[in-house]
Automatic annotation (TrEMBL):
It comes from Brassica carinata (Ethiopian mustard). The keyword Protein biosynthesis does not apply. This is Calcineurin-like phosphoesterase domain-containing protein. Residues 1-27 form the signal peptide. Residues 41-304 form the Calcineurin-like phosphoesterase domain. GO terms for molecular function: hydrolase activity, acting on ester bonds. One of its GO terms (cellular component) is cytoplasm.
Length: 397
């Protein structure tokens, strides 16, 4: 009876999916994000492009031989090449997308050029702001309002209802990655993405020349959104007994990134500069650990750091700098980070919930190298840990 009922649900959902799949994209090129028919969802993170004036922008930290021929167009070529190789389902531009120290009209043109590879490939994309994007006469709000009108973007200025419950910053929003077409979990978000605006520079006396931090209003918004996602995940039909995994993207790393050095056991990648995080710890990371949902926090900002390390069950990962206009390290290839979530197969043969989350990096070298593949999280590991914990508790009693 249970199997018959499950198959009936699958059939009903398949018919609904068929009717919806006729028009998966709206007039602005926006679409509902979902896992593909292979049960996978791939995210390409591009950080610190520092896009300027295209071919007129000179590169930083390249060899003398490369310098005469290097410009922003090298950044464009790298992103295009990576899109062709990886075929991502979503591109996240995680801040310092443009070099903002120019007139507003030029900043708009810079953004058009910076995001062009995603638009030309017709791939859904989102953007958050870094500390340099607004260094013109365009404010952070104006920048985000410009971005959200661009083709194929799912970016938001701020979450729905922020006019009633004010939230600091511009570019705080949540993306829900739903189950594949035809699966029983078609209407459930199986992976939750949270974009946060970490601000630019502190505007308070006594904190001059310091980076801004995620404010309490943003932490509260995350907590509310996370609890709502958990409630939806546990609802009928096909209620789940846990929470869907989540990922957070913000430009400036949280202070907890400072704890790690390389080489070090369990830390994959390199640290080649100090972590430039805010002077104030607003408690975001503590809240992420408390909620237990988020499996990874992904940042940029420090261009020549690209490590991943785990703290209290949460992975803290740098993307590494992708842009040639921003600083880098001569001989150390520009790079991007890829994250892929894979669903499990149920006993009925349909796609279930997220089984594991994996990451790796792509380099802009001769071979377009793929390096440092690692599992960030897996359901099996979590279940094993929970089982051992319960066994230990039973033994103690």
């Amino acid at each position: 009876m249970e199997k018959t009922l499950a198959l009936f649900y699958v059939l009903c959902i398949s018919l609904i999916c068929l009717s919806l799949s006729v028009s998966p994209v709206d007039a602005y090129g926006r679409r509902q994000l979902r896992f593909n028919s292979n049960g996978r969802f791939k995210i390409l993170q591009v950080s610190d492009m520092h896009y300027g004036f295209g071919k007129e922008s000179q590169c930083s930290n390249v060899t003398p031989e490369e310098l005469p021929y290097c410009s922003d167009l090298n950044t464009t070529s790298f992103i295009q090449r990576t899109i062709a190789s990886e075929k991502p389902d979503l591109i996240v531009f995680s801040g310092d997308n443009v070099y903002g120290m120019c007139e507003s009209g030029d900043v708009a043109k810079s953004m058009d050029m910076a995001f062009a590879p995603a638009i030309e490939a017709r791939i859904p994309w989102v953007a958050i702001l870094g500390n340099h994007d607004q260094e013109s006469d365009m404010t952070r709000e104006t920048l985000m309002k410009y971005i959200v009108k661009m083709p194929y973007t799912l970016s938001e200025v701020n979450p729905f209802g922020s006019w009633l419950y004010p939230i600091d910053g511009f570019g705080n929003y949540n993306l829900q990655i739903e189950g594949p077409f035809g699966s029983p979990l078609f209407f459930k978000s199986l992976l939750n993405l949270y974009m946060l605006d970490g601000g630019d520079y502190v505007k308070l006396d006594g904190f001059a020349f310091n980076y801004d931090w995620v404010k309490s209003s943003q932490v509260n918004w995350y907590e509310h959104a996370s609890k709502w996602q958990e409630m939806e995940y546990k609802k009928w039909p096909f209620p789940q007994n846990s929470t869907a995994p989540g990922l957070v993207y913000l430009h400036i790393p949280v202070p907890e990134f400072k704890q790690f050095s390389t080489p070090s056991y369990g830390v994959i990648g390199v640290r080649q500069e100090q972590t430039c995080s805010p002077p104030i710890n607003s408690g975001l990371f503590t809240k992420l650990v408390e909620r237990g949902e988020v499996k990874g926090v992904f940042s940029g900002h420090d261009h020549v750091n690209d490590f991943c390390a785990t703290l209290n069950g949460v992975n803290l990962c740098y993307a590494g700098g992708a842009g040639y206009h921003g600083y880098g390290k001569t001989g150390w290839a520009r790079r991007v980070r890829v994250v892929e979530a894979q669903l499990e197969k149920t006993k009925y043969g349909s796609w279930g919930t997220v089984d594991k989350i994996t990451t790796w990096k792509r380099l802009d070298d001769k071979n377009h190298s793929l390096i440092d593949t690692q599992d960030l999280w897996s359901k099996k590991t979590t279940l094993d840990k929970n089982y051992r914990f319960k066994c230990n508790m039973i033994k103690q009693h």
